[in-house]
Design a protein that fits this description.
Layout lengths: L11 H4 L15 H37 L2 E4 L2 E4 L3 H7 L2 H33 L5 H13 L2 H11 L6 H8 L11 H29 L3 H9 L4 H12 L1 H15 L4 H7 L11 H11 L3 H30 L1
Antiparallel strand pairs: 1-2
Length: 320
Amino acid sequence: MSAPTLTQDPAAKDRRPRRPRTGTARPPAGGLGKALRRNVTAHGFLIGAVLCFAFFSWYPIVREFLLAFQKTDDGQVSWVGWDNFVTVWNDPAFGQAWRNTLWFTVLALVLGFAVPFLTALVINEFRHGQGYLRLLVYLPVMLPPTASVLLFKYLYDPGYGMFNEVLAVFGVPAQQWLQDPDTAMLSVVVASTWMNMGGATLIYLAALQGVPGELYEAAELDGAGLLRKVWHVTIRQTRLVLALMLLMQIIATMQVFIEPFLLTGGAGPEGSTTTVVYLIYQYAFNFNNYGAAAALGLILLVLLAGFSALYTRLNRATEE
């Protein structure tokens, strides 16, 4: 028997000298160009979004800041310092507008903050039909604001409105909902709550569905009732969402304009629905005093920014 040759020995393959590799792995042809084009396209879209945001958001803020210290007469722009702020401060409607705005905010928090949360609690208890209920609650948000307000204006009509028809069934005399200074602001708040509660309800519902069910089971084992479970489990687990929604609602209600403008003509009976934003509208488009309008808008901006910073700081201190 002849001895096995090198080519026949299986182990000889491992003893063969291996040729050293020269050079490094090269990227696929055109890879660098594709990556460059992809990044250029992405940055192009990003720059476009930033430019749109700066033009439609930051430029009006800067322009308003400049207008607050300027006055325009026959096309001639002049700096007047704090004169526009003095004009706004001495306006008799200034104090009334702030009182009405704060009153609207308080009423909107009582109704517009509590009602969506309670509605979300009720919907969350349904095991079936939640999709239909979510659509039903969100439907008013999908309607045009003008159509919703005009619908409520029809319902509030003292002659043939549905609200007075319901009161007549119980023997209650008809009410002048939008013509009475005592009920005008409350009527505006009810309409605003119905129009805007859908989005808040869905946000609360999403937060509630993220609460672990084991917490409710543990609370039941401890003998907690419905109210205690809501207070110690539901609210504590959703407190971050509640805090954020509270801040957003305060900012939104302080800038209310559409509802009182369409329901009561803006000012309302005896000026009971005159808000700060409606007063800004009057300065700009009724009195052609854009400087005073910008000054009042700047005051509102500073107050809301200060309140937001203080609110955020207090919430952070509470969490720590």
